[in-house]
């Protein structure tokens, strides 16, 4: 509101590279619903003084280039996606997208060098994949919403869903909709509290592994374990393998963790 009403935004960039600014301006100024989203309005919600909000808005608008690096945690709350939409809009109306020194979280700043082991042949496990933003909806509604099946048992590894995915309240409903939940964990996380069985998996410091930057980067790291506690928790693969054996599933996995790592490395050019 401070930027728009005082003409502090980048009109050239906004007119050339954005869509829908007129409607956004009408919403912010109150022309749409009669409620101006001004610093006083925002102060009553966030607890920051109107003066501080105005000062921050003016500083950001004037400091071009400016890198708005928000972090992703707010997006994991109810309606948290609106926070990130607002951040992207701020970067856009100030012309801080696509320039050196500018930034908006979620941009295409990754360097794709491929994935370790992508040349290894694996059996076809089907294509019923679900985007992570749709997982809760699939768990709650299943076939009635067009998904491949109705899920009743959830097996979770390597993910604290309630901490990582959008819409915490919907996530809670999704987990409560399941008949049975199994998870691998080191701690009693919010997601693990919903599990019927918690299997203690090894910490990443307790086994050798290969790591790549999860958000993109031109390097790969071989991570040596720092603990040789052979009687401690098992790796995810060891747990899966032992469960498969107990279920009578033949040929599920015939290699150790170290053998798989060696094959991954040998498969790379």
Automatic annotation (TrEMBL):
Q: Where is the Molybdopterin oxidoreductase domain?
A: 1-246
Keyword Coiled coil on entry: no
Organism for this UniProt entry: marine sediment metagenome
What the entry lists under SUPFAM superfamilies is as follows: Formate dehydrogenase/DMSO reductase, domains 1-3
List the Pfam families hit by this protein, alphabetically.
Molybdopterin
Q: What InterPro entries does its record include? A: Mopterin_OxRdtase (IPR006656), Prok_Mopterin_Oxidored (IPR050612)
MF GO annotations: electron transfer activity; molybdenum ion binding; oxidoreductase activity
Question: What cofactor does this chain's UniProt record say it requires?
Answer: Mo-bis(molybdopterin guanine dinucleotide)
Q: Which GO terms describe its cellular component?
A: outer membrane-bounded periplasmic space
Keyword annotations from UniProtKB, A to Z: Molybdenum, Oxidoreductase
Kindly provide the name given to this protein in its UniProt entry.
Molybdopterin oxidoreductase domain-containing protein
**Per the UniProt entry, what are the Gene Ontology biological process annotations, in alphabetical order?**
anaerobic respiration
